[in-house]
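$ ./design --mode recover --in tokens.txt
reading tokens...
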């Protein structure tokens, strides 16, 4: 028998809107980058590498879902490439600065997506 919580969690993911999913992915990127920074701080390079690579995988996934017919997709693609480049630099050099530079940008982007999602929802209900 499946754990009721696991079943609920699976069902909630299945019923998420695209906006909810993007928000969740951004939360996870931010979470992983912060854990990666903490790993660098305590010199646990294996942990920081794991967290940075997971953040990169999510960013790469977001990039792969972009729809090229919209001009904004090109800009987002460039940003995602830059984010991944900076994460790689931090990981290779064991230096937190490149991640500290992009973290506020990622948080800002998350907020922009949340605002856009809110506007889309409001336009569909009213």
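writing sequence...
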């Amino acid at each position: 028998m499946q754990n009721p919580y696991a079943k609920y969690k699976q069902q909630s993911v299945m019923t998420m809107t695209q906006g909810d999913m993007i928000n969740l992915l951004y939360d996870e990127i931010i979470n992983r980058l912060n854990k990666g920074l903490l790993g660098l701080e305590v010199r646990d390079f294996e942990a920081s590498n794991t967290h940075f690579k997971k953040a990169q995988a999510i960013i790469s996934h977001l990039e792969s879902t972009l729809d090229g017919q919209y001009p904004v997709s090109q800009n987002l693609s460039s940003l995602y490439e830059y984010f991944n480049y900076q994460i790689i630099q931090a990981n290779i050099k064991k230096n937190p600065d490149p991640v500290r530079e992009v973290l506020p940008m990622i948080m800002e982007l998350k907020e922009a997506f949340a605002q856009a999602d809110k506007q889309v929802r409001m336009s569909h209900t009213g």
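exit 0
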